[in-house]
């Protein structure tokens, strides 16, 4: 539905992925510590989830913390982990009340024990919810995910449970973290940067890309609706000629 309560036409994309970029630059532009920008970014996450649910989006995937983000200064990483703890402790009950399923993808082994426990509790509590699947990528990298899938496939071949001649695109997809979700239809990145930054590299092969000049803390439902309208204005051919079906 739009801001005036009328439904968007046509229906929104089933799966929207967002690279939430620009928290630090938002804060710097206002003479504030980077942590303030990250805190405001958490508020934007809350608003984006509400908007996606209201608009009928079935899957929302957010790039929360990349595998490369571990290289940031230790103080900033600790601040981000603290915000993650706060989000998981404060938001899971609300997500559950709203019928939102929470999923986390990425290499959890690098996260602390208490954060992993919060994640497992949240996923378990919300597992049967069906209004929206919220996936947050934490300690995540697209290349790492593909390497992880390749390793699992190689082990299956070595164990004799998979014929190498049967390995195809579907085989790879089944071994990704997102194996039980449709690929994103729309990928949005905020802050004006125009790259995918190692996010869902396999899954976004045919996603429509929309780049927004606003930093993530300023992202609103209006911006989400605008991106959806741009998505609907494009012809998705999936490699076929104009006017052809996929």
Automatic annotation (TrEMBL):
HAMAP family: ISPT. InterPro entries: UPP_synth-like, UPP_synth-like_CS, UPP_synth-like_sf. The active site is at residues 21, 69. Keywords: Magnesium, Metal-binding, Transferase. Binds 2 magnesium ions per subunit. It is an enzyme of class 2 (transferase). Pfam families: Prenyltransf. GO terms for cellular component: cytosol. Belongs to the UPP synthase family. This is Isoprenyl transferase. The keyword Ligase does not apply. Mg(2+) binds at residues 21, 208. It comes from Aliidongia dinghuensis. The keyword Metal-binding applies.
């Amino acid at each position: 539905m739009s801001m005036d309560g009328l439904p968007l036409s046509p229906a929104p994309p089933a799966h929207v992925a967002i690279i939430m970029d620009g928290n630090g630059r938002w804060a710097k532009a206002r003479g504030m510590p980077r942590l303030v920008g990250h805190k405001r970014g958490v508020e934007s996450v809350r608003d984006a989830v509400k908007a996606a649910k209201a608009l009928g989006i079935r899957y929302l995937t957010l790039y929360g913390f990349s595998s490369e983000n571990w290289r940031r200064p230790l103080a900033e990483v600790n601040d981000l982990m603290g915000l993650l703890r706060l989000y998981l402790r404060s938001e899971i009950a609300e997500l559950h009340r709203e019928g939102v399923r929470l999923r986390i993808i990425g290499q959890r082994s690098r996260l602390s024990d208490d954060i992993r426990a919060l994640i497992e509790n949240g996923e378990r509590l919300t597992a049967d919810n069906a209004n929206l699947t919220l996936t947050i990528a934490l300690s995540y990298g697209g290349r790492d995910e593909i390497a992880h899938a390749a390793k699992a496939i190689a082990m299956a071949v070595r164990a004799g449970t998979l014929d190498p001649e049967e390995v195809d695109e579907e085989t790879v997809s089944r071994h990704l973290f997102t194996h039980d979700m449709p690929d994103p239809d729309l990928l949005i990145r905020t802050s004006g940067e125009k790259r995918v930054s190692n996010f869902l590299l396999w899954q976004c092969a045919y996603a429509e890309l929309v780049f927004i000049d606003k930093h993530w803390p300023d992202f609103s439902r209006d911006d989400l609706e605008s991106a959806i309208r741009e998505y609907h204005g494009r012809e998705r051919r999936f490699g076929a000629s104009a006017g052809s079906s996929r």
